[in-house]
């Protein structure tokens, strides 16, 4: 088998794994949203504060990623 064929098979394998991860993550995102709803019902002020902090860190991650371009 030549290198091009091997590379193609490897890429196909990786894409298949990524598709599986995507399906699991989509289901897990529902769980995260349920946790968020529960937290908001029982401790809304604390939940909003935590979510703002998470959002700040997510923005920092995005900015760092964008600096790679």
Keywords:
mainly alpha, 91% helix, 0% strand, elongated
Task: Characterize the structure shown.
There is one protein chain. With 69 residues, the chain is mainly alpha-helical. Helices cover 91% and strands 0% of the residues. It contains two helices and no strands. The protein has helices at 3-42, 44-66. Helix 1 packs antiparallel against helix 2 (44-66). The longest helix is centred in the N-terminal third of the chain and has 40 residues, at 3-42. The protein is elongated, with a radius of gyration of 19 Å.
What is the fold's blueprint, element by element?
Blueprint: H1 3-42, H2 44-66
Helix pairs in contact: 1-2
Radius of gyration: 19 Å
Tell how many strands the DSSP assignment holds.
0
| Major pleated sheet | none
What would you call the shape? elongated
Number of helices: 2
The structure class reads: mainly alpha
Ends apart, CA distance between termini: 35 Å
Q: How much of the sequence is in beta strands?
A: under 5%
Give the overall pLDDT as a whole number: 93
| SSE run | HH
